[in-house]
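Input (structure):
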């Protein structure tokens, strides 16, 4: 069975996590942030070592371990009853990060919509990331060079995912607005895409 899915999409600092957390509080929506799944790993585990090696340089973790880790996590959420795919809509944030991952997940995800949180103000995104680094002790967000590398990787590897799914699914949302204004814009589409 494929998971009914909404993808939250955008550059690092665009607000995906904020919107995902809000939607995840609504009954029958399950928010899964791939970054949180990675950050929950222990540094001594094999996958944890891989994650640290790549994230400390602002690079993406290779596709196979990323998708395997996510599949294991989501199956665990099903077994524990946190996620019920027959009733819940999966709100996925941070995956797929490239076209290869999107293809690997074609048999798993029934993507109903992509909310593309678009931020044209690079300085605002950098400030968000640096504030988040302080607030959440996320070292990958603190270094300016790592941030620049992450934004470059996003442009080169992640943005093409939009074309993979096609324009009909993409809803472009201005994420330079306040979080409540962005939420209002997201909610405008949610009911249409999951019914």
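Output (sequence):
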């Amino acid at each position: 069975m494929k998971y009914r899915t909404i993808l939250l999409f955008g550059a690092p600092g665009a607000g995906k996590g904020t919107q995902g957390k809000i939607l995840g509080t609504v009954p029958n929506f399950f928010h899964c942030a791939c970054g949180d799944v990675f950050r929950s790993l222990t540094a001594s585990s094999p996958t944890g070592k891989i994650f640290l090696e790549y994230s400390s340089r602002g690079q993406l973790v290779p596709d196979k371990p990323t998708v395997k880790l996510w599949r294991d996590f989501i199956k665990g959420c099903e077994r524990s009853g946190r996620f019920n795919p027959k009733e819940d809509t999966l709100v996925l944030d941070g995956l797929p990060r490239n076209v290869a991952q999107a293809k690997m997940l074609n048999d798993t995800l029934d993507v109903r919509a992509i909310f593309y949180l678009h931020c044209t103000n690079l300085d605002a995104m950098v400030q968000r990331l640096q504030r988040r680094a302080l607030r959440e002790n996320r070292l990958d967000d603190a270094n300016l060079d790592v941030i620049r590398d992450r934004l470059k990787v996003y442009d080169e590897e992640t943005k093409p995912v939009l074309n993979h799914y096609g324009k009909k699914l993409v809803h472009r949302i201005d994420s330079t607005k306040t979080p409540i204004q962005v939420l209002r814009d997201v909610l405008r589409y949610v009911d249409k895409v999951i019914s």
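Notes: The longest helix spans residues 63-80. The mean pLDDT is 85.
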